[in-house]
Amino acid sequence: MASFVAANINPLNYFGGVSFVPDKNIPDLSGKVILVTGGNAGLGKESILRLAKHKPEKIFLGARSESKATEAIASIKSFVENVEISWIPLDLTSTKSIQNAAEHFKAQSQRLDILLLNAGVMALPPGETELGHEIQLGTNHTGHFLLTKLLLPTLLRTAEEPDSDVRVVSLSSVGHNLAPAFEKILDQEKLKKVNTNTRYGASKAANILFAAELARRHPSITSVSVHPGIILTDLYNSMSGSSAFHALGSKAIGMIGTSVPDGARNQLWAAVGANKEDLVNGAYYVPVGNLKQHNCYAQSKDMGKRLWEWTEGELAKISL
């Protein structure tokens, strides 16, 4: 826990960056189709609200709970009336749910300009997805990998259009510094036995590796990973309830954390705020727009390739 707090507050993670005010600096999004996972609360909901103000053609909100999604959509529309937002049922621990979500999306749209892989879990007790993956890696990485894979034909088709600017933004964290050795990330039985912060770190390292490898394999798509900063969201609830020590750490983060509106800025900058030519494809950014060009996961072609192939192999075990 102490190392997690230290990783978050290290000032070296935040030197540099750009000025970005979403309401002022997000361009007109007319004609753009956007999908945001985990859009019912926190950074996802805030991102949809900010995007909705700039006239996108349609926004898809991926979330498990219909009631929470409906409530979020109503809340957003109370601020922005003339926007089309559609809920897509999505449980990232369920391959069937992800398959259904992709089909649901494709039945409603022939294009996808922005895929914001925002959903995530943190500090969970031991558990696994239906695929048998450690719960945090399986949700944060494998679930998003499968969703992107199923939507890839739509993303690539959109990228072929004149003046296209297709982007996939993966939400990572400086928590990637807590990841175990790479071999342990690929060995799910070993990964399940380490502490929750190490397991979380593995999932965040995987997010960076995935974004970088997606950029290498499909350069017509701009794919980057981002750290939002120390954000006061529901993610810390599970941490504060796990022990008195973790509760103290959660309180410390709460004292130095930033608000959700400010926390959404980095992913919004990467998704729509930055000019396409100013983004380094496959890179990892900390707030706001601060390129971490020496990040080992973003730079490692070997780890990126191996994680991609391992994930595809795992998904091959199910019927797609």
Fold and architecture overview:
This protein has a single domain, classed as Rossmann fold (3-Layer(aba) Sandwich), CATH 3.40.50. Helix content is 48%, strand content 11%. It has 15 helices and 8 strands. Strands 3-2-1-4-5-6-7-8 form an 8-stranded mixed sheet, sandwiched between helices. A hairpin with a 3-residue loop joins strand 7 (284-286) and strand 8 (290-291). Helix 5 runs parallel beside helix 6 and helix 6 (135-159) runs parallel beside helix 9. The radius of gyration is 18 Å and the shape is globular. The N and C termini lie far apart (38 Å).
How many independent structural domains?
1
Terminal residue distance: 38 Å
Indicate the percent of residues in helices. 40-55%
Broad shape: globular
- The secondary-structure element order is HHEHEHEHEHEHHHEHHHHEEHH
Family: Belongs to the short-chain dehydrogenases/reductases (SDR) family.
InterPro entries: NAD(P)-bd_dom_sf, SDR_fam
GO molecular function: oxidoreductase activity
Keywords: NADP, Oxidoreductase
Quick synopsis:
Helices cover about 50% and strands about 10% of the residues. With about 325 residues, it is of the alpha/beta class.
